[in-house]
UniProtKB/TrEMBL annotation:
It comes from the Bacteria. The keyword Transmembrane helix does not apply. Keywords: Oxidoreductase. The keyword Oxidoreductase applies. It holds the Pfam family adh_short_C2. InterPro entries: KR_dom (IPR057326), NAD(P)-bd_dom_sf (IPR036291), Sc_DH/Rdtase_CS (IPR020904), SDR_fam (IPR002347). PANTHER family: OXIDOREDUCTASE, SHORT-CHAIN DEHYDROGENASE/REDUCTASE FAMILY (AFU_ORTHOLOGUE AFUA_5G02870), SHORT-CHAIN DEHYDROGENASE_REDUCTASE FAMILY PROTEIN. Signal peptide: none annotated. This is Oxidoreductase. GO terms for molecular function: oxidoreductase activity.
Amino acid sequence: TLPFGGKIALVTGGSRGIGAAIVRRLAHDGATVAFTYASSEALAGALVDEIKAAGGRALAIRADSADVVALRQAVDEVAQLQGRLDILVNNAGLLTHGLVDDYPLETFDRMVAVNVRAAFAAVQAALPHMGRGGRVITTGSVAANRTAFPGASVYSMTKGAVAAMTRGMAIDLAPRGITVNAIQPGPTATDMVPTDPAVLTRLMTLMPIGRLGKDSEIASLVAYLAGPEAGFITGACLTIDGGYTA
Ligand code: NDP
């Protein structure tokens, strides 16, 4: 039997990168997996087709996380499939760099809306559908603990907020048997990693393991936290960074 057979999961921001790897992994392990995306319609469709061709169950929903109404609708739509939601992965995230001097406050607001507010709102929307054994996992970042490059104050702030929010929600939901955790990846090979060779070279000097993380490695940690063996882990922010913050 598959680890997540009969389970239903929602992953926000599942069309590319780490989110897509999480979708693949949970579906491979037997879950019915719905995921949201903001604009990558073709990639989202291709991922659903790939999972279905492999015998899995997947559903893509366009829902910009900054649009709380659309996000709530997505949560409700997924919960209706099986009358409940077992696993919520708040993964959608945005990274816009900029020095403090001229960082547009509109961008600040959008970063907070997608990286923080949407995660909180998705949990709120999911709770009526989530029972004992429920799992909430949010993709934070090592940026919550270490900001090694200029221009990252807002991104780091949002990930620090994810960490603190995770601790608070974990205490709120512990009596209901729902665990709440964050994962804190270090630099991982996705579209989010800078392509500038000079930045990449500097980044590599900060990576004891000497390479970027793989999206599938991040997904493995999410699969562990989502599974029954992780029932005693809650309120944790688990670093997975190849030694970047060591
Ligand atoms: P990508 O840019 O590769 O993918 C981002 C995903 O999130 C896409 O599926 C994208 O959808 C979706 N997304 C972005 N904005 C929204 C939105 N407003 N509403 C709904 N979906 C949205 O990033 P990563 O995979 O690298 O990042 C995933 C998470 O991991 C983020 O939270 C990020 O902060 C975090 N992280 C990444 C690290 C890294 O080094 N890569 C390190 C630490 C943390 P669409 O395709 O439609 O745009």
